[in-house]
Protein 1
Amino acid sequence: MNLISAFIHRRFAHIRHRWLGELSLALLLPIGIYITLGFGLSSTAPDIEDVPKLAWLIPGIVLMIAFSGGLFAIFHDIFQNRGSGQFYGSVYVSPSTPSATVMSLTLSVAPEGAVRSILAMVILQFVLGHLYPVGGQISMVFLILFAIFIGTSAGLTLGIVAKDAITSQLTVLLLLIGLGFGSAWFVPLDVFPESIQPLLSVLPTSVLGELSRGFLIGTPHSMVLLIIPLGTLVVWTVINIFLFTRISTE
Amino acid sequence: MEASVSLKKVGKVLNGRSLLAGLSFGIERGSIMAVVGPNDSGKTALLKVISGFSKPEYGSVFIDGKDAQLRRTETASMVGFMPQEINLDPQLSVLENLQFHGRLYRVPRDRMNRRISSLSERLDFKQFIHEFPGDLSSGYQRRALLCRTLLPDPQVLLLEEPTGSLDLRSQYIVWDFLQEMRGSKTIVYTTHSIREAERVHDRIVIMHHGHVALDGTLDRLLENTGELFHFQIHFRKLPKNLYETMSKVTTVVSPSQVGQVFDFYARERKVFFEIIKLAMKEELIDYSANKVGLETLIMTSTES
């Protein structure tokens, strides 16, 4: 618990020092994405009875904000501070084990990511003028946490394996765009060729998209599918612990 | 005295290059050990291996009798490592950096706050504690780094160039403080400052190519050299045959030619006059004659 608390305090301190930028981003990013994607992609959103067309898009935007928040926070932190002469050098020689460090790092982003994503959900409902069911919104928080953890796992892996800043930032950008569209967060899966639809539908991020729409706008969904993001997280965490061990010892 | 840190045949290889070559020695509890040597001699590698940051390819490190690899969590909490680089989090203030480190080492909050207050006062940087590391001079950054290392109150302190980039007054502040810990903490530090190593040590280890070239107290090391003197005679032009003649004098030790300078050692001062007699026909520019000190010891023991 001490280690988790240490990393959470550190994240809060980072945010406190640049609170204006963080707050502006938290308030403007959802609106920015909504305007950009809402105008461009509203025609691709399926028609659902008693629900505005753009209400389909909002869960995807919220998941993207959760995912990218986790990814960017951890990726930059690890990439910039991972060397032996950098900040994480002092973490490597501490009594904390790599597994505890990886899990604490992952969990440390959850509070800020959750606040950011919930705020985005509230703002977007206000902008759209449509209120989702309260029960669905509470369940959505659960999926937001999954999206954050998948994002932090991706950020951790990329932060560790990245060779240089330009290539890694390009990779992050492609990953965000690829997942945003390929996971049916912004467009329905049926816009893709039929041959790749089954593959895309079992992506952990696609499952989160499907479940979030099930919770918020009542589209058909299966809770059993939750095993996919859960399993992905477990496997990815183990991989990240292994990778972190590799960089923490010369 | 009981060993606080023990190395048993510790070897470290990086990119096919041997950084540490089967080192075996113990470091007495509560002692101060200065590690000196030229660049690339293995000083940093030694500290990194003891701190647990670097894994030896072979051999074992024991901290307080516990294997540092097998019982890493236990041994890591006993060791404080201060690297040469300023590895504070640049996005946190100095205080936040210290608090993070305190939590990392599970220091109870009350104790942590007391120690931060007393250490920052003792190391004379309390007025800068709310600043970001990047806004401080390198001297204050190093003091903050030392404070961070001391915060969990480790038994063993591994300090890489602890007074590098500090002004003279700050060096005294740091060393006065560290010397107060003599007897209670084991301090191992690397330095390029001969003066510092001569002044603050219970033991000096001179490293070369990953080996321990010399090991002992300064007096003992100098004792082993006997009454050795170091001479240098600077000629306008040093002829080859004269160099060979002077080198063949049986009382001349380790002769060498550096440019137009004849460099040699001898057990007695009078050898210098014998050499001068031989060299009288040539134009002499300058000379120096010194009793061998740590600097010469390092130079001679680390000659390739």
Protein 2
Amino acid sequence: MTPSTGSELIRLDASELAAKLAAGEVSSVEATQAHLDRIAAIDGDIHAFLHLNAAALETAAAIDTQRAAGETLSPLAGVPIAIKDVLCTLDMPSTAGSRILEGWIPPYDATVVARLRTAGLIPLGKTNMDEFAMGSSTEHSAYGNTHNPWDLTRIPGGSGGGSAAAVSSFEAPLALGSDTGGSIRQPAAVTGSVGMKPTYGGVSRYGAIALASSLDQVGPVTRTVLDAGLLHDVIGGHDPRDSTSIPDAWPSFAEAARAGTRDGAVRGLRIGVVRELSQEGQGFQPGVLQRFHESLALLEQQGAELVDVSAPAFDYAIAAYYLILPAEASSNLAKFDSVRFGLRVTPPGGGTVEQVMAATREAGFGDEVKRRVILGTYALSAGYYDAYYGSAQKVRTLIQDDFARAFAVCDVLATPSAPTTAFKLGSKLDDPLAMYVNDLTTIPANLAGVPGISLPAGLAPEDGLPVGIQFMAPAREDARLYTVGAALEQLLVAQWGGPLLAQAPVLP
Amino acid sequence: MSEITPEVVTHLASLARIALTDDEIARLTGELATIVDSVAKVSEVATPDVVATSHPIPLGTVMRADVPGETLTADQALSGAPERDGDRFRVSAILGEEQ
């Protein structure tokens, strides 16, 4: 048997790599080294990583030793993974892309990180993101832009642009992201990768630096639907440390993905096509709609039934989101007070603790964070609370009602994952509203707490850039998304003659 | 139209404890006015008969069993502090001179 070279190892899906590790065909040290070499070779161009894990090879060697000793290991043991910098890690700085947390090393691991370590995955490092996950392009990071591997002059999506870029440029087979309004799904869409936002409460938020606590959810960023299911199985499930964590048991999502590749997997599946988010004249790029409708036609040929559904309250989702999110963020970010952790800036000549706080937050927060904290403070202030925050919460009810009506007549909902392909770096930076509108397809799922997955649907004919298709399911029905996602992925990969990422430009 | 003026932004910044510069206040006044006008459309459908939703999944607070577990040590809790004094966080004066 010929040993795999590093350039072959990095192209393997996580499930393929895991099989080779289990069979002893490759060691975790070799796999980890191959990814570290890839990062060293191309991350100067991509800038997906903010910090690398100095102990990665050591951890990999320990897994190899356990395997050699015949210990029973979990399915993804020895597989490298990248971690979004919003997640607390004991052994690496956790900045959430903010200057105010520069160099901060948390005294504990996020639960999802602890679960990765228990399962024997190898953390490669921490990935770039919009500051405190506020953004759709990763341009609001305090540590520089991340570049889209399909075109280095374009955004990798956001806020989890680093995780999506790492996975789509073969720097890591797996990554973790967090999704408050689309930060897992939209980067997946524009980089040709897979991103899953689980049901709210399905994955622990303990140790995830909070943006908007009623919307945030941690989830997998991968290159295949099966890999997302395998990773979801590792990180999901009840956590006593998160009081919003759903205590029920979950089925295996890897099994749900495998079920999707079997004959007849989507026969009789009712797919609701959301009228408000699938037609021309709603800000959608023509090539995005074309690939979206072609994907649905493929599923229809396999026996799925397309159902036209309307969700009129979705038209108010962005407005509600940009009141609820800033309101919750202004409260969550109050903890960055120059006292317990992070930056402290003392004004010239000293000052009271309040003045030190204000000087620290002025110096440590970027423009978008200041914008949203001030907006949230306004939305929550006396005299405006009912008109803004209160009304936004009512819209949330209307959106949940729309989902409930839709799921009465269909099993899953489908929309494009993002209205356009990746836009140019810098093109929307000076226009906050233009950046916000980008989230129109992903926000409803966060407001209602339902799960959503994005997977590649092809390249837009007009610019040759990746398009994502999103499926959403009722709360707690995440398994449906893995089944329909894996079914469509199999059909599309057969049509393309291989994974979409095989068509990406060669780097460096 | 919203009522975002430089005075309002200055007041909000003081509530949020951010020492904005005059340039930032001027820029944010314009940006926030645009954003607030746009998001105000929520009031079009937020009629009195609609109940508010604060949390997406109906779930009572999930409590863990009331048994002692591991907690952070004082050293761990203070490990990221900008300044410490023994087992405490050290800060500058709480009260200004006028008090």
